[in-house]
Amino acid sequence: MNLRDIFENNLEEQKKIELLKKKSVLVPDWSKLRRSYDPEKHKIVRDYRGRPNRTLEDGTIENATRYRFGLEKLLVSRMAGFMFTIPVKRVYPELPKEATEDQRKRRSEIIHAIEQVYKLARLDNENLNRAKQFFASCEMFTLWYTTGSPHSKYGFPSQHKFKCKTYSPMDNNTKLFPLFDDTGDMIAMSIEYRNVENSQSVTYFETYTKDKHYKWHTTQDGWVAEEPKDISSYGKIPGVYMYRTEPLFGSDLDYIRQTLEYKMSENSDTISDNAAPILATAGKITGLEKRSDSKRVVSCENGGKVEYVTWDQGVESTKFHFEQMLDMYFMLAQLPNISASKMMNLSNVSYESRQLLFADAHMKVGQESGDWLEFLDREFSLVKQFLKEAHQEWAKDIDAIDCDHVITPYIQDDKKASIETLMRANGDKPLMSQKTAIQHLGMSDDADAEIAQIQAEEAAQPAQNDDLSNMYIAK
Asked: What's the whole-model pTM score?
């Protein structure tokens, strides 16, 4: 589709929005995905046929147990954590040896500015949040924009701050409509959302192209267009979009979770029905004598008796079934079950053993990383374009700056194992000075004074030992 056909043919506003809503990609509907993701939307909550409430003899309604397990939500959180708990690392290639000192200085300034943009926009935290949105709703769009706030935090006087905001269908009433051309390049990105203003719901529709920002809002008479705004001269849509055609939690996982909910709910009702002991009698009861507040004596005819009958539940089979299905859920999801109870059973395993335990999760991160690396590369290009416009002196040099994004799958850090590995690679030689070690520990405010104190104590130690030896010999 050509944008000129939309904006240059004097179409009605309603018709323009209809054309912009022709989504170019197939993404699962969030309203359907939410039925699995949100525990309150699970089938068992309103299934009164499969899990009917009971009416007792006195007319009291006894509600059936309805357990809801948010395994999809936990799965999404775990996947985001495995990918981005360790922040994404940007590795910048070195300049060739023949580069001048000015070139090296300029490159260092540009890299510092880029890293400051990421830091001040809190991209490490943003990656975790948008990973959850992407894995849950299958699409998300991060919009970059500027705010008029003069500062010098990028290493140069700037009139603007660069910030970002991520949109996804998980946001209340938000819909995304990407539009691609025949070559697969995104030519427009539209966002529809609702706000409450003066106790009334107002729907907004915004469209971003490489040079314009269009905006509409609803009134009683329909859509009303606001004045379009220029998007500087970036030459790019000021945002990055990513989508997937299948959810992280498929129908096979949904079935396992649903079975767990029903089986646990049924077992809970069975326990409630049979937990109270039953008083069984044999023969005729001839008398009841109360000896004290807590003891009673029951008299029966010959051969009669009174006893409590308790239910002997087969708990092991129920427990085994539940644990097996839960393990199957995480196995099919390619993520380990790292609950506290599971981790306690591991005891004190080595760092190498933990790596093997997380091998499946690391493979899953590797499978998902491809789309994310492409997404981060496009975002990096956009950040450079922002800086080029903000600091014209870098226009010739900033395009030459490149980086490789490194996504490191999470594993619990083991500093002892890391140090031992590095020591072996270094020929069992020290890896840092005593001063650096003291600074890294952080328990002393003055590393130099601490070293001087240590040296003084070490110098006094032999003299103290000699005195003790002389005292022992003298005795």
From this structure: 0.79
